[in-house]
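tokens incoming
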């Protein structure tokens, strides 16, 4: 018959400052503990090593490390893993800045080098502001198509 050491376990948990599940009782010395009914008896048992607090259980980070390594390679970033709209992952303003700055700098260079006039510059600047061109190459192709730039330029 198994001895009921519920009270001893409870007192040991309070003394050790841990949960009852972490209280370890030496299976070879269980008979001695049946008589231990005071806290002093439990403290003596702890000092003698009959009762111990089992080490805390950790949580392995192995899976997390593996997943992070995969993400660094670009995996696990598909539409099923995304929450929020596209503008939450990369702000739409930042996208616009990265589009408009090169276009405006290209227009400035063309105007300053005399390849386009001030009026053409202003016309295409305003078109760029309206979002007509998606990148530098697109702007240049429009300038060529409208006859403002020669093919060699």
């Amino acid at each position: 018959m198994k001895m009921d050491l519920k009270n001893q376990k409870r007192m040991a948990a309070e003394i050790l400052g841990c949960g009852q599940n972490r209280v370890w009782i030496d299976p070879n010395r269980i008979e001695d503990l049946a008589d231990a009914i005071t806290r002093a008896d439990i403290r003596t048992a702890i000092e003698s090593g009959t009762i111990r607090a089992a080490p805390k259980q950790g949580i392995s980070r192995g899976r997390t490390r593996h997943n992070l390594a995969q993400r660094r390679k670009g995996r696990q970033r598909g539409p099923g893993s995304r929450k929020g709209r596209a503008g939450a992952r990369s702000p739409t303003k930042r996208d616009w800045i990265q589009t408009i700055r090169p276009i405006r700098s290209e227009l400035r260079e063309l105007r300053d080098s005399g390849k386009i006039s001030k009026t053409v510059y202003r016309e295409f600047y305003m078109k760029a502001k309206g979002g007509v061109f998606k990148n530098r190459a697109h702007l240049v192709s429009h300038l060529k198509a409208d006859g403002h730039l020669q093919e060699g330029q």
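note: The chain is about 55% helix and 5% strand.
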